[in-house]
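Is this the right way to post structure tokens for a design question? Let me know if I should format differently. Anyway, here goes:
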């Protein structure tokens, strides 16, 4: 996943100079004061590798050390926070890194206010939580376990081009001895709310403001589910509409509290009306109004589709749509997280927050005085052989035909030279899955959530154990690599090697995409 060469990003009064870089006791975790997010940890991968490894917060020894020993709300307080760390937020990569850190650490109900000093519109902004891996970091210094969990999460969320890729992140941790695993799986996976690759939010999932109606509107929609189908086959899905308009007919699905609208999109993300991924949409099936919809479409080449629902009129409240696919269609609807994300990448582990283990130093310095003062990022364009975070590690799933090459492209900004990496690649997580032969990890399916296929008890090159690893699963093998690298590094084995579904889950009724 090479960037080709380090890129210099220009933002208003922020200048990047072609200067070389400067170089340079755990405590027991308390149960969180904010409850862990009780949902699957499905999270976007869109942080560029270059921004992860060369930013003025995590790649600055002083701010890195403060992050690992301070409460986030205190450190980044808009007026009372650490002055040097706040100055380093002139670096856009530092702000981007922090957005991903807070997204990994805090829950969806938490946020961290900070002062964005960049022109042309400086002011107070907020980073928001998402995964809830370390909610107490908001108000207290983090534990060693917390730092490792968040480090693994942030590492898992980078790729060279900064493309938005949805991940299923799995692991093992209980905030309370008798509590649930915080890494849980959804029984029904919802379509992504963003445009694939670009990450732009879809307008269709925003609220309507003018009383819009009909299936062609781009507001007021809700993601419902994901289905699989045989490419080129005819698929029928409904939310209460009749299967035939010629007299009395059975209905497919149902709707309560008003007529519904349906939209079907190619792939695992929603779509807008004019999007080329729109496979079909409808309100009333037979032309009479109001009525519930049925949508007939051709299964796309990728074999997956997403369904969105909305009230036929945006002024209707309380709609409950039960979407079903026709049993005679070569389709299965309402797929679980394990079914949608079935390609195991590997494991990520270690600790970013060790200032003495940084391979580079990035700083923001002020030049000039008064109105002519400019802030310059120094050291963000260096090339460092190997990993800039010397205590971050990654191992790869043995199903990759070229595991070492895939892993290098995954964690290095300049993989052809092995430079500007976010982690050291330790080898295969398991040497073989059939029969099972351990590699860098002793366990290929942790006991807290049987069948989720998380690598556990992973070790580095020195045989040091890092217990807070995370394992990532992709929807498709090539999601995280560039076009140039797909043929060389993202080829999978010809036979499935993922763990079997847990007891009680039906076998996959469709071919896995390898």
């Amino acid at each position: 996943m090479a960037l080709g060469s380090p890129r210099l990003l220009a933002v208003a009064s922020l200048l990047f100079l072609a200067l070389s870089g400067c170089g340079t006791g755990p405590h027991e975790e308390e149960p969180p004061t904010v409850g862990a997010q009780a949902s699957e940890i499905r999270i976007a991968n869109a942080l560029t590798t270059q921004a992860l490894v060369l930013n003025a917060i995590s790649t600055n020894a002083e701010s890195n050390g403060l992050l690992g020993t301070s409460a986030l709300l205190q450190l980044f307080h808009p007026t009372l926070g650490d002055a040097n760390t706040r100055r380093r937020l002139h670096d856009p990569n530092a702000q981007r890194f922090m957005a991903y850190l807070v997204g990994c650490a805090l829950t969806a109900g938490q946020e961290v206010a900070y002062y964005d000093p960049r022109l042309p519109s400086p002011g107070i902004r907020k980073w928001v939580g998402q995964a809830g891996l370390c909610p107490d970091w908001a108000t207290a210094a983090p534990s060693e376990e917390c730092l490792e969990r968040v480090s693994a999460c942030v590492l898992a969320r980078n790729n060279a081009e900064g493309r938005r890729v949805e991940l299923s992140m799995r692991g093992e941790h209980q905030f309370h001895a008798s509590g649930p695993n915080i890494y849980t799986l959804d029984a029904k996976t919802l379509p992504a709310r963003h445009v694939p690759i670009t990450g732009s939010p879809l307008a269709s999932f925003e609220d309507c403001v003018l009383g819009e109606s009909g299936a062609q509107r781009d507001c007021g929609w809700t993601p419902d589910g994901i289905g699989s189908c045989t490419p080129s086959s005819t698929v029928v899905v409904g939310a209460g509409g009749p299967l035939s308009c010629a007299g009395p007919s059975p209905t497919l699905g149902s709707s309560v509290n008003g007529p519904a609208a349906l939209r079907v999109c190619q792939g695992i993300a929603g779509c807008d009306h004019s999007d080329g991924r729109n496979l079909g949409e409808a309100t009333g099936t037979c032309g009479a109004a109001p009525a519930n919809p049925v949508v007939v479409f051709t299964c796309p080449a990728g074999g997956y589709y997403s369904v969105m629902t909305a009230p036929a009129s945006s002024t209707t409240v309380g709609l409950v749509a039960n979407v079903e696919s026709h049993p005679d269609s070569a389709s299965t609807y309402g797929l679980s997280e394990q079914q949608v994300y079935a390609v195991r990448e590997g494991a990520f582990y270690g600790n970013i927050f060790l200032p003495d283990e940084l391979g580079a130093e990035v700083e923001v310095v002020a030049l000039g005085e008064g109105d002519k003062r400019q802030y310059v990022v120094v050291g963000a364009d260096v090339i460092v052989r190997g990993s800039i975070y010397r205590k971050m590690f990654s191992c790869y799933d043995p199903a990759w035909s070229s595991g070492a090459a895939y892993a290098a492209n995954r964690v290095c900004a300049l993989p052809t030279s092995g430079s500007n990496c976010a982690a050291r690649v330790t080898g295969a997580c398991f040497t073989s899955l059939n029969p099972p032969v351990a590699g860098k990890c002793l366990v290929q399916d942790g006991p807290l959530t049987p069948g989720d296929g998380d690598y556990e008890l992973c070790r580095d090159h020195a045989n040091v154990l890092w217990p807070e690893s995370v394992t990532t699963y992709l929807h498709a093998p090539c999601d995280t690599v560039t076009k140039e690298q797909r043929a060389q590094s993202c080829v999978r084995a010809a036979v499935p090697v993922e763990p079997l579904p847990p007891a009680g889950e039906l076998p996959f009724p469709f071919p896995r995409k390898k």
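Format looks fine. Someone answered above. Worth noting: The CA atoms of residues 231 and 300 lie 5 Å apart. The longest strand covers residues 222-229.
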